[in-house]
Write a structure and sequence with these properties.
243 residues, alpha/beta, Rossmann fold, 4-stranded antiparallel β-sheet, 36% helix, nucleotide-binding, transport
């Protein structure tokens, strides 16, 4: 299976605090990898390093054998292939739903407006927002905004999607609508790396679960092993609050 992401000996510090310590991880095409762990364990920093929203201090990150940390690499071109959905929705409040989704296609990919709109409408329909295509983005619920954010990322036809706690800012009753969209993407073969506190999602949808603690990958295995037979005491302690 083709390797989409390969991380080697990754290090990241903020001032004197080592947030990532010698991280090694790979993600294969079509794989769903969920990263779990306590707040402050380095999960989101690791995810943000993958597309260089945070610049590593040491180590290498390869996207399909292209070294993102090489200064000669055009990171903006590669980012077109790496979709990202954040905790906050990051929508443009002065634009409607459709315009939020077409902006990158027309500005970055230089696509014609009609073609961009057709792609955006297809993805918005797929995430259940066909009736909100022309809605003011400020009027949407949190779950709807996050689904727009997912559709917007998909419009760029990425080879991998990164999700950073995509449900953490949502009310519990609307979490499911976002997780359902993510599960559909997984079922369709989208390569995904998901930082999440949604243990049921990690258990049911992921191909592999990575448990991080204090900046290191403490354990990495199938969801079945992580959730039923974790090897490390710290993993067992963390999961005890969810199981």
């Amino acid at each position: 299976m083709e390797e989409i992401i390969r991380i080697e000996n990754l290090e990241k510090s903020f001032d004197q605090l080592r947030v990532l310590k010698n991280i090694n991880l790979n993600v294969k095409k079509g794989e769903v990898v969920c990263i779990i762990g306590a707040s402050g364990s380095g999960k989101s920093t690791l995810l943000r390093c993958i597309n260089l929203l945070e610049e590593p201090d040491a180590g290498h990150i390869y996207f399909k054998d292209q070294d993102l940390t090489d200064l000669s690499t055009d990171i903006n071109v590669l980012r077109e292939n790496i979709g990202m959905v954040f905790q906050g929705f990051n929508l443009f409040n002065n634009k409607n739903v459709l315009d939020n989704c077409t902006l990158a296609m027309t500005a970055v990919k230089k696509m014609k407006q009609a073609e961009a709109e057709a792609i955006a409408i297809r993805h918005l329909t797929a995430v259940g927002l066909k009736e909100f295509i022309y809605a003011d983005s400020r009027t949407l619920s949190g779950g709807q905004k996050q689904r727009v954010a997912i559709a917007r990322a998909l419009c760029m036809n990425p080879e991998i999607m990164l999700f950073d706690e995509p449900t953490s800012a949502l009310d519990p009753e609307i979490v499911k609508e976002v997780l359902d969209v993510m599960q559909r993407l997984a079922n369709e073969g989208m390569t995904m790396v998901v930082v999440t506190h949604e243990m049921q999602f990690a258990r049911e949808v992921s191909d592999r679960v990575v448990f991080m603690d204090q900046g290191v990958i403490l354990e990495e295995a199938s969801p079945e092993q992580i959730f039923t037979q974790p090897q490390m005491p710290r993993t067992r302690e963390f999961l005890s609050r969810y199981l």
